[in-house]
Amino acid sequence: MKRFHAHVHVEDLAQSIAFYSKLFDAQPARVETDYAKWMLEDPRINFAISTRGAKPGLDHFGMQTDDAGELATLKARAEAADMALLDEGSTTCCYARSEKHWVTDPQGIAWEHFHTLGDIPVFNEASQPAAAGACCAPAAESAPAVARPACCGPATAAPTKATCC
């Protein structure tokens, strides 16, 4: 079974944790100095917030799979639809080790498809400083090149492999 995922950048983590904990009537499953995540069952969502973004707001959506087979199905569906696909394979980001790939919708919103393999004690294991930036989604195909957080390197007109996630 898949779980919907949304990642939002916030300015004040403590204030946002308090708000979302009340909204969801649940405490986060994971809290770090720059990140919090709720793994809700009703609705079935992996909702994450972090202070790592350039500005507050939506970073990306996604689908988290329970197994590698579901992830392969999502990848095959994206490939069959002739979507530009960024296959990161095994990577670390958001305090987790996972297999993932990305697609970008026509509006430029990144969608992450991933299967979590386990937790890690740091935001990512990239050689970049931990404060470098949030999870890296591919740039939209039609979007102009713009600066990305340091963990990602510069954005390009076509999706390229990000160095963090």
Could you explain how this protein is built, in words?
The relative contact order is 0.18. This protein has an eight-stranded mixed beta sheet with strand order 2-3-4-1-5-8-7-6, with helices on one face. It has two helices and eight strands. The chain is 15% helix and 37% strand. Mean pLDDT is 77; it is low at 127-134 and 139-165.
Key features?
165 residues, alpha+beta, 2,3-Dihydroxybiphenyl 1,2-Dioxygenase, domain 1, disordered C terminus
Principal-axis shape = globular
Intertermini distance: 23 Å
**Mean pLDDT over the residues:** 77
**Full CATH superfamily name:** 2,3-Dihydroxybiphenyl 1,2-Dioxygenase, domain 1
Tell me the structural class.
alpha+beta
Strand order of the largest sheet: 2-3-4-1-5-8-7-6
Level-2 CATH architecture: Roll
Q: How many DSSP helices?
A: 2
The CATH topology corresponds to 2,3-Dihydroxybiphenyl 1,2-Dioxygenase, domain 1
The low-confidence parts are 127-134, 139-165
**Which oligomerization state do the chains in this entry correspond to?**
single chain
Instruction: Report the sheet with the most strands, covering strand number, pairing sense and barrel closure.
Output: 8 strands, mixed
How many distinct folded domains? 1
CATH class: Alpha Beta
| Strand composition percent | 35-45%
